[in-house]
Structure formats: structure tokens, C-alpha cells
Design a protein that fits this description.
Elements lengths: L33 E3 L6 E2 L12 E3 L6 E2 L12 E3 L6 E2 L12 E4 L5 E2 L12 E4 L19 E4 L4 H6 L8 E4 L2
Parallel strand pairs: 1-3, 2-4, 4-6, 5-7, 6-8, 7-9, 9-10, 10-11
């Protein structure tokens, strides 16, 4: 589904504005498996897709600079998430309980990742961080994701290995 203009979307508490599809009934798994958000959006707000268990993929435009608390909480079918360059903050519980999530990509623009952002994402096998100077994150940010491979920019492996709690990843690999 492609949205034609910026919209506020909340699965559990539905607020819609100018969708290109008319919905006559909203219920569990009402959204399609794939969504492309419109350019011009600046934030994915609190709980926007929380509980959208049928959501498998989402295209986030580069205009987004903030991912709100619980934005993708319990999106259990989501398999990959790439936050675009320009995102500065990933909110608390942003992807908590995304049990199908396998890969996460964090751009260099991120300056804050809040507590439990990726907690209980037990299927994650790879986290790609493009942050050049890793900052300390709370021990709950990655939780059970620590067994995944953390991919980092060339020349930053030692910085990540010394920074709480990035250092919890058992395997850190530099990207070319």
C-alpha cells in the first residue's frame, strides 16, 4: 500500500488522513503486508504500527528523523528494518517483540537509541550500524539480540568493543 500524503497511522488506535484505499472495517491484520510511507513525513509517532502483526515490510522515507516509542512494537511478521539516513532518534520499545525481525540497519545520523528498542527480537542475526562514533546505550536496547553479528564501519570495531552496551555483541565485524 502506498500512501499519497503524510498520514498518522496507529494500528491499535486508528487515526487516518487521506489514504489511497477506503477501509470499511478495521480489525486485526487490517493493513497489507507491505507499506511505503510518503516522502515528507518527519516522524513515525508513538505506537504508530504497534500490534500490526501482519506487517512484513515497510519503506521509510529519508525525510523521517524520529522513530517514536513503540512505533513497531510487536510487529511480529516484520523481517527487516532499515532506518534511513537522517533518523536521529529511535524511541523506547521501537521494535520490541518484533520476533520475526532478522536484520536491522542503523544509519550514521542516529544519536540516541532508547531503552528496549530491540528487546525480544530473538530472530535477529545481523545488526548493521553505520554510526562512526558509538555512544553508550542502555543494556536493554539489544537484549537478546546480542548473539547477532554486529557490522560496523571500517576502523570502528575497537570503539564498539569498548562502548557499553555495544560491547555485548559476541561478534563484531568491520564492513568494507
Amino acid at each position: 500500500m502506498r500512501f499519497t500524503s503524510p498520514s498518522v497511522i496507529i494500528c491499535a488506535h486508528l487515526w487516518l488522513n487521506k489514504l489511497s484505499v477506503v477501509r470499511t472495517k478495521i480489525g486485526q491484520n487490517a493493513w497489507p503486508a507491505s507499506i511505503s510511507l510518503p516522502s515528507g513525513m518527519t516522524e513515525i509517532g508513538m505506537s504508530s504500527f504497534s500490534g500490526c502483526t501482519g506487517l512484513k515490510s515497510i519503506d521509510i522515507p529519508s525525510s523521517v528523523d524520529a522513530i517514536g516509542d513503540s512505533a513497531f512494537y510487536n510487529c511480529s511478521a516484520l523481517t527487516s528494518i532499515t532506518f534511513p539516513e537522517g533518523v536521529k532518534e529511535i524511541g523506547e520499545h521501537a521494535c520490541h517483540l518484533c520476533s520475526g525481525l532478522k536484520t536491522v540497519s542503523i544509519p550514521s545520523s542516529v544519536t540516541s537509541i532508547k531503552e528496549r528498542a530491540f528487546l525480544d527480537c530473538n530472530s535477529v542475526t545481523a545488526v548493521y550500524s553505520y554510526i562512526q562514533s558509538p555512544f553508550e546505550v542502555d543494556h536493554t536496547v539489544f537484549g537478546s539480540v546480542r548473539s547477532a553479528t554486529l557490522y560496523v564501519p571500517k576502523g570502528t570495531k575497537e570503539l564498539y568493543a569498548k562502548t557499553d552496551y555495544w560491547s555485548y555483541f559476541t561478534t563484531i565485524v568491520e564492513m568494507e
